Amino acid sequence: MGGARDVGWVAAGLVLGAGACYCIYRLTRGQRRVGRGPRLRPSPSAEDLTDGSYDEVLNAEQLQKLLYLLESTEDSVIIERALVTLGNNAAFSANQAIIRELGGIPIVGDMISNPNHSIKEKALNALNNLSVNVENQDIIKIYINQVCEDVFSDPLNSAVQMAGLRLLTNMTVTNDHQHMLNSYITDFFHVLLTGNGNTKVQVLKLLLNLSENPAMAEGLFGAQVDSSFLSLYDSRVAKEILLRALTLFQNLNNCVKKDGHLVLRSTSTFHKGSLFFLLYGEECAQKMRALANHPDVDVKEKVVIITPCF
C-alpha cells in the first residue's frame, strides 16, 4: 500500500510539475509575443558600437565611449567605422548638442588631417552633420581654411572634395562665416568649370549661399573667372545646373542694383576677365536672349527676370 501511495504522489508531482512548466512556457511565450518583459542585453563595448549591425541611436554614455575610442586607437579600420557611427548619430539634433558638450567636435576635426583619404572623408561627413547645429558651427569654423585647402588640393571629383564642399555649403547657409571664403572664390569657380555634373551642382549650391549676401557681392563679382563660365548658360546644359547658374546671376543682380541703380561702392575695381564683366557683357546677353526660347517654364521665368539687366 505504501509503495502504491508513493507512486501516486510521484505521479501527481509529475503532473503538477508539467502543469507549472506549461504555465511558465505560456507566460514567457505571451510576453515575447506582446513585447513585454525585460530584455537582458549586455552593455556594448566601444568596438561593438561601431559594428554595422548595431543600428540603435546612441546615448550620451555610448557616444562618450565612441569618442574615447577615436582618441585611443590607431587602427584605421576602427577609426573609420567609429566616424561613420558618430556621423550617423550626428544626424539627430539632440546628439549634435551632446557630442559638442562631450568635447567631440575637436576630436572629429583632428581627423581631417589624417593622411588616409577614407578617414578624412568620413570625418568631413561627420562634421557636415554636426554643422547643422548653429552652436556647433562656432567650433567647426576653425577648420574652414583647412577644408578649403583640401577641396582644392584633392583630386577633382573625389569623395574628399565632395565631402568638403558639402560641409562648406552647410557652413555658409547663414552669413556668419561666409567672409572666411573670400580669398577662395576664384578657386571655387575653377572647380565649378572643371568638375563633373555632381561637383558643379555642389559648387553652385555653395556659390548661391554666398550670392544671397550683399556683403559677398564684390568678392564674387571681382573673381577672375574663365570665359567658359558662360557655357553654363546654354540650353543643352542639365536643368539642375542651368537653373542654379541663372539663380546665381539673379541673386548677384539683386545685390548690384536696387531700383535700377548700382549700389556697389565702385565697379571700376572689376578687371576684365572678372565675373562682373562676363555677366554684363554682350556674349552673356546673347545667351540670355537665346534661352528665352528654352522649352522649360522654370528656365524661361528666370531669363525673363534677368534679361532687363541688359
TrEMBL record:
InterPro entries found in the cross-reference section: ARM-like, ARM-rpt_dom, ARM-type_fold, Armadillo, Armcx_regulator
What domain of life does the UniProt record list for this protein's source? Eukaryota
Q: Which Pfam families match?
A: Arm_2
Please report the residue spans annotated as repeat (ARM): 103-140
Q: For this chain's UniProt record, which GO biological process terms are given?
A: negative regulation of intrinsic apoptotic signaling pathway by p53 class mediator
Residue stretches spanning the membrane:
6-25
Per its UniProt record, what PROSITE patterns does this chain match?
A: ARM_REPEAT, PROKAR_LIPOPROTEIN
Q: Which residues form the Armadillo repeat-containing domain?
A: 58-279
Task: List locations, semicolon-separated.
Answer: Mitochondrion outer membrane
Cite the entry's keywords alphabetically.
Answer: Membrane, Mitochondrion, Mitochondrion outer membrane, Signal-anchor, Transmembrane, Transmembrane helix
Family that this chain belongs to: Belongs to the eutherian X-chromosome-specific Armcx family.
- Entry protein name: Armadillo repeat-containing domain-containing protein
